[in-house]
Amino acid sequence: MTAALGQGVVKVAVFGAAGRMGQAVCRAVLDAPGLDLVAQIDVDDDPQRAVEAGAEVAVDFTHPGATMQNIEFCARNGINVVVGTSGFDEARQDQVRALLHGTEVRVLVAPNFSIGAVLMMKFAANAAPYFESVEIIELHHPDKVDAPSGTATRTAELVAEARAAAGSAPMPDATLSPSQGGPGLDGARGAAVESIPVHSVRLRGLIAHQEVLLGTVGETLTIRHDSLDRASFMPGVVLACKKTGTLPAGLTVGLDALLDI
Ligand SMILES: NC(=O)C1=CN([C@@H]2O[C@H](COP(=O)(O)OP(=O)(O)OC[C@H]3O[C@@H](n4cnc5c(N)ncnc54)[C@H](OP(=O)(O)O)[C@@H]3O)[C@@H](O)[C@H]2O)C=CC1
Ligand SMILES: O=C(O)C1=N[C@H](C(=O)O)C[C@H](O)C1
User: Fold this and answer.
1) CATH T-level assignment (fold) for domain 115-228
2) Among 11, 130, 172, 190, which residue has the fewest nearby CB atoms (within 10 Å)?
């Protein structure tokens, strides 16, 4: 049995260690009983250091363009991976499934590690079939490179799945875009993820926030989550470091796989 299954200390490497999340993750791993921070790797460091240090799990908070290479490297070297980096669409998930095929390596991709955000996604999916309309507003710090956020994309996918399973009718929207001959500006209705409109705000002072707006005749419901500090993600990251080794081999998407919710 490996350390990841609860028999001792799990050795952790952090990719993106100098970044906003990476620094917080290194501190959280150092403070967590049962975890040992053995390698801190940023853009100019040799990832081989993780192997030499005996890392059993690597945490990746880098850039959407860098994560796939890091996963390939870890898979080749038998290291499980906890991915927080956003931009993990279906095509990338399929790529990871293919490269893990026939290995014992586990990769957990979590669009959001905060318990509140995981619950927000679940509540939104539960509520969606009871409302005609659903739209998502995600609000983040302006240093974020991707839009829409991974959390908003995942929420839209879960909401769309719930609406499809319930046989919901298409959402009402009379808007004619300029390309359809209407007045106004292209983009004013946001980006469509699985037909769910997603609006991205980038504002100095913010960290990570999201509202899911649901509406039907005579009433609306707003589900809002706010990460006011990157500390909100750390219990989820620590849990993932400890438990990813207990998941089935291959790819798992969503922290909820490790939570009893
Ligand atoms: N799942 C979740 O709960 C959360 C996910 N995120 C996501 O995490 C990611 C990181 O966010 P954040 O920390 O704010 O971003 P930062 O830009 O602050 O950090 C990323 C770090 O990774 C470094 N880096 C780039 N390429 C590599 C590489 N190949 N190997 C090792 N390090 C590399 C960067 O260096 P350089 O700047 O020199 O390129 C930088 O230091 C984003 O995709 C964000 O959306 C963020 C918060 C929570
Ligand atoms: O870049 C961030 O900060 C965050 N990114 C993740 C995302 O894209 O959803 C998670 C959280 O929203 C913070």
Assistant:
1) Dihydrodipicolinate Reductase; domain 2 (3.30.360)
2) 172
CA 151, CA 209: separation in Å to the nearest integer?
10
Nearest CA-CA partner of 43 in 60, 24, 55, 26: 60
Q: Which residues contact 214 (CB under 8 A, 6 or more apart)?
A: 124, 127, 128, 130, 131, 133, 134, 220, 221, 222, 223
144 within ligand 2 shell (Cβ under 6 A)? yes
Residue whose CA is closest, atom 39 of ligand 1? 43
pTM: 0.95
Q: Is 20 annotated as a binding residue?
A: yes
- Domain segments of the chain: what residues? 3-113+231-258, 115-228
- Which tokens in the block code for residue 175? 């808007």
Is 3-113+231-258 in CATH node 3.40.50.720?
A: yes
Alpha helices in 39-192 (DSSP H): 48-52, 64-76, 90-100, 115-127, 150-166
Tens digit of pLDDT for each residue in 149-204? 999 999 999 999 999 999 999 999 999 988 888 888 989 999 999 999 999 999 99
